[in-house]
Write a structure and sequence with these properties.
The complex is a heterodimer of chains A (about 110) and B (about 110). Chain A is mainly β and about 110 residues long. Chain A contains no helices and eleven strands. In chain A, a hairpin with a 2-residue loop joins strand 9 and strand 10. Chain A is globular, with a radius of gyration of 13 Å. The relative contact order of chain A is 0.33. By secondary structure, chain B is mainly beta. Chain B has no helices and eleven strands. In chain B, the strands form two sheets. In chain B, strands 2, 4, 5, 6, 9, 10 and 11 form a seven-stranded mixed β-sheet that branches. Chain B has a four-stranded antiparallel β-sheet with strand order 1-3-8-7, with no helix packed on it. In chain B, a hairpin with a 2-residue loop joins strand 5 and strand 6. Chain B is globular. The chains are: A mainly beta (about 110), B mainly beta (about 110). Chains A and B meet through strand 4, strand 5 and strand 10 of A and strand 4, strand 5, strand 9 and strand 10 of B.
Chain lengths: ~110, ~110
């Protein structure tokens, strides 16, 4: 079945350092979405990528969707303590667009 | 606009007991999902529904049942609670196409 893998599982950075999390799917995706979950909270939508090779930016966050639509990345430039949380990618397979599968998430800790 | 509402927020069950986790959304979304999140882990899809009367298994359906008699409600049933079902359960809904998923606040379930 469809699998979405995300690495690394944890990342500790010093405030001001950059951070990247990678997402890989076993199947071609119709789109990829990214969510953020603050400690004790629920996942909240950040952004969606649909087109092959698409790149989107939200202030210090840069999101990429691979050419084959099977991988994606989230890069944060100059992390801040407010970036702390778990970042999830989620994808819907091209063959079953009803099913929304999440990666394992990357938990980011930022030391001030 | 309440969004996605889950009840209860917390519950302690004894082994072998049964319960229903309630989920309701007021956004007229066709797609609804149940996920479980174990400590430090990602979101695993239990069941999902693409519309009233239609449900399908996710990644970890064993020990659970669902129904979708209306667009608004998507209850999750645990028949014989086991310690392995101790987790945080999230319900989510989304509209059709490339739209974001909205999550409820979660239900923290402990089976002892």
């Amino acid at each position: 079945g469809q699998q979405v893998m995300q690495i690394p599982q944890y990342q500790h950075v010093q405030e001001g350092e950059d951070f990247t999390t990678y997402c890989n799917s076993s199947t071609t995706l119709s789109n990829i979405q990214w969510y953020k979950q603050r400690p004790g909270g629920h996942p909240v939508f950040l952004i969606q990528l649909v087109k092959s090779g698409e790149v989107k930016k939200q202030k210090r966050l840069t999101f990429q969707f691979g050419e084959a639509k099977k991988n994606s990345s989230l890069h944060i430039t100059a992390t801040q303590t407010t970036d702390v949380g778990t970042y999830f990618c989620a994808g819907r397979s091209s063959s079953n667009t009803g099913k929304l599968i999440f990666g394992q998430g990357t938990t980011l800790q930022v030391k001030p | 606009n309440a969004g996605v509402t889950q009840t209860p927020k917390f519950r302690i069950l004894k082994i072998g007991q049964s319960m229903t986790l309630q989920c309701a959304q007021d956004m007229n979304h066709n797609y609804m999902y149940w996920y479980r999140q174990d400590p430090g882990m990602g979101l695993k899809l239990i069941y999902y529904s693409v519309g009233a009367g239609i449900t399908d298994k996710g990644e970890v359906p064993n020990g659970y049942n669902v129904s979708r008699s209306t667009t608004e409600d998507f209850p999750l049933r645990l028949e014989l609670a086991a310690p392995s079902q101790t987790s945080v359960y999230f319900c989510a809904s989304k509209g059709g196409g490339n739209t974001e998923a909205f999550f409820g606040q979660g239900t923290r379930l402990t089976v002892v």
